[in-house]
Amino acid sequence: MKNGVVAVLNLHDGHAGQVSLISGKSRVDIMMGQQLVVGANRSPNLADVTPTPEIAVRNIKSVQLGDRRIFTADFSIMSALMNHNTLKGLAKSTSAEHKRHLTQFLKNATVLSYVTAKHGSYKAK
After folding, report:
1. How far is CA 109 from the centre of its chain?
2. Closest CA to 87 of 71, 74, 75, 69
3. What's the domain of life for this entry (predicted)?
4. What Rg do the C-alpha atoms of the chain give, in angstroms?
5. For the segment 22-80, what is each residue's pLDDT rounded down to a tens digit?
6. Residue 97 class from Cβ within 10 Å (0-12 exposed, 13-18 middle, 19+ buried)?
7. Of 27, 17, 13, 47, nearest to 123 (Cα)?
8. In this predicted structure, what is the pLDDT of residue 1?
């Protein structure tokens, strides 16, 4: 959490709907390669709110849910792996588990880049 804003990036999941936000009677599913940003800020622009501006995104959508604004966007897994401080650590780690995760994330990035190529390019702030 940064400045009252939470960002969730789905780098891998086992099935659709596995990662979601539930608030009251509302549910927002986050598919692999999507991020969700939630904050009290009412700005209609993700760039004004996101705690991860270094990660390239596209297809940004937002809704107001009570006193919170919720953004969803496709994000570049490769951009996240190269630019997010925590995720950059995976490449330097000697842990077998970390290497397994990194390999899976790279596979996911490859598949998503192929199947979503027509969705346009990603852009960072």
Report:
1. 12
2. 75
3. Bacteria
4. 15
5. 888 888 999 999 999 998 767 788 988 899 999 999 999 998 887 888 999 999 999 99
6. exposed
7. 47
8. 59
Helices marked H in the chain — which ranges?
Answer: 46-49, 77-83, 85-92, 96-115
Residue 54's alpha-carbon distances to 78, 94, 99, in angstroms, are 12, 25, 23
Residue with tokens 């400045």: 3
Per-residue CA distances from 18 to 21, 31, 48, 82, 98 (Å) = 10, 8, 28, 25, 21
11, with CB counted inside 10 A (0-12, 13-18, 19+), is buried
Mean pLDDT of all residues in the chain? 91
CA distances in angstroms from 123 to 19, 66, 99, 102, listed in the order given:
24, 29, 27, 23
Contact 44, 71 (CB under 8 A): no
- Kindly state the tokens that stand for 111: 């598949």
